[in-house]
Amino acid sequence: QVQIKESGGGSVQPGGSLRLSCTGSGFTFSNFPIEWYRQAPGNERELVGWVSSSGAPTIYLGSVKDRFAISRDNAKNTVFLQMNTLKYEDTAVYYCRGYGVWGPGTQVTVSS
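Predicted structure:
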């Protein structure tokens, strides 16, 4: 059974950092690209970033390009989303998708 699960969300003040993790199982994780999405209340889900199966290249949404970084550790079936200089507008549920399967999401709240 293919499973994707995110972790690492939480509350942080503006300017702070969080690192999200996305772990996959039930498929050959290292063969597939992974995508990070987010959805804020009242908004559509949007693509935040993408990482190739090998870890490079990566692609980012314009508004996060200089603040977020995606990396992966295929030995641990895990992809990371490092989020720095967080802003109020980064508040959302963050989702990971791999092998066409969505994780349940993890909440990120940026608040003072």
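Summary: The two ends are 40 Å apart (CA to CA).
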